[in-house]
From TrEMBL:
PROSITE patterns: MDH. This is Malate dehydrogenase. Substrate binds at residues 106, 112, 144, 178. NAD(+) binds at residues 33-39, 59, 119, 142-144, 253. The gene is LOC102606140. It comes from Solanum tuberosum. InterPro entries: L-lactate/malate_DH, Lactate/malate_DH_C, Lactate/malate_DH_N, Lactate_DH/Glyco_Ohase_4_C, Malate_DH_AS, Malate_DH_type1, NAD(P)-bd_dom_sf. Keywords: NAD, Oxidoreductase, Tricarboxylic acid cycle. Homodimer. The lineage of its organism: Eukaryota, Viridiplantae, Streptophyta, Embryophyta, Tracheophyta. GO terms for molecular function: L-malate dehydrogenase (NAD+) activity. Belongs to the LDH/MDH superfamily. MDH type 1 family. GO terms for cellular component: cytoplasm; mitochondrion.
Length: 338
């Protein structure tokens, strides 16, 4: 009867969340920047994920409090808090997935590229430590400008001799989350059913939602598609302006970051057909990095999927985004070499 109880518990948990937590392998996740606006709710959401067995929360300061708080939640994972650079190695050791929301956020009037001067150095130093302490981890880069910080990470790993293009991801899930929400509102369909790929990069016009491929399909006018596209591209700015100096998206970003990290964990655990959009090394276009649908597996990227059929409006958007995305990528690479 004990077995039956256990079986019942397993299947209830499995049905409720889509996980079979009792059989999930040990997985360590590290969050770098865990005391920040994104870091704190992301720590909460990762503490709720039954695929995580150890959750390391690292920041330059403030993590002991966040770790003590989150650690009282009665879910599977053990919480480990680390503060200050001398503890970064311990935070990273044995990590399967490292999520990086460290860095300064925008204020009204700024572009994501205006964050480059501060955040490029932060990402460079954190990736140098990743190469040393957990060179095989899947790395989820949230810190902006993503179009440049991901190329910086790749160059740091190349220099350290640890680069594996299958293990480096720019997190663009928030663009997909927004595109789904805005599309469902306009198309009057159930948001839970909506699928919309978002490709390109993660800044302004480099964000290219492919509403022509959205499902459930709807008969939206070209004006409506254009408005949805602009709103998705300016979604970050919409939040920055509403927060009026108190930073950028944190709660919706924590949600998006938790979705993407969960997809990485499922892939590592051998769950089939895990597909998310992400900014990765790519041959889908002539640019060395590009966001598109990616199939995740036991080694990270299993397959970078192509763009599929584009509308004329999307084809124009694709050509229009290339110069900016190219120069942001080159800026990151140049910084890493300097
Ligand atoms: P925040 O200022 O609230 O938090 C950032 C945290 O990073 C702070 O706790 C800070 O102490 C920490 N930090 C700074 N340097 C560090 C270092 N060297 N090592 C470890 N931690 C360090 O900012 P936020 O609102 O959480 O945003 C963080 C970053 O995420 C920003 O760059 C922002 O632009 C970006 N962002 C990206 C997306 C996306 O879609 N990819 C969405 C929202 C925000
Ligand atoms: C977002 O898309 O919300 C983030 O990139 C933060 C920002 O600066 O807009």
């Amino acid at each position: 009867s004990m077995l039956r109880t256990l079986a019942r518990r397993t299947s209830t948990a499995g049905r409720r969340r889509g996980f079979a937590s009792e059989s999930a392998p040990d997985r360590k996740v590290a969050i770098l920047g865990a005391a920040g606006g994104i870091g704190q709710p992301l720590s909460l959401l990762m503490k709720l994920n039954p695929l995580v067995s150890r959750l390391a929360l690292y920041d330059i300061a403030g993590t002991p409090g966040v770790a003590a708080d989150v650690s009282h939640i009665n879910t599977r994972s053990e919480i480990l808090g680390y503060a200050g650079e001398e503890q970064l190695g311990k935070a990273l050791e044995g990590a399967d997935v490292v999520i990086i929301p460290a860095g300064v956020p925008r204020k009204p009037g700024m572009t994501r590229d205006d964050l480059f001067n501060i955040n490029a150095g932060i990402v460079k130093s954190l990736c140098t430590a990743i190469a040393k302490y957990c060179p095989h981890a899947l790395v989820n880069v949230i810190s902006n400008p993503v179009n440049s910080t991901v190329p910086i990470a790749s160059e740091v790993f190349k220099k350290a001799g640890t680069y594996d293009e299958k293990r480096l991801f720019g997190v663009t899930t928030l663009d997909v989350v927004r595109a789904k929400t805005f599309y469902a509102g306009k198309a009057k369909v159930n948001v839970a059913d909506v699928i919309v790929p978002v490709v390109g990069g993660h800044a302004g016009v480099t964000i290219l939602p492919l509403f022509s491929q959205a499902t459930p399909s709807a008969n939206l006018s070209s004006e409506e598609i254009e408005a949805l596209t602009k709103r998705t591209q300016d979604g970050g700015t919409e939040v920055v302006e509403a927060k009026a100096g108190k930073g950028s998206a944190t709660l919706s970003m924590a949600y998006a970051g938790a979705i993407f990290a969960d997809a990485c964990l499922k892939g590592l655990n051998g769950v089939p057909d895990v597909v998310e959009c992400s900014f990765v090394q790519s041959t889908v276009t002539d640019l060395p990095f590009f966001a598109s649908k990616v199939r995740l597996g036991k080694n990270g990227v299993e397959e970078v999927l192509g763009l599929g059929a584009l509308s004329d409006y999307e084809k124009e958007g694709l050509e229009a985004l290339k110069p900016e995305l190219k120069s942001s990528i080159e800026k990151g690479i140049k910084f890493a070499h300097a």
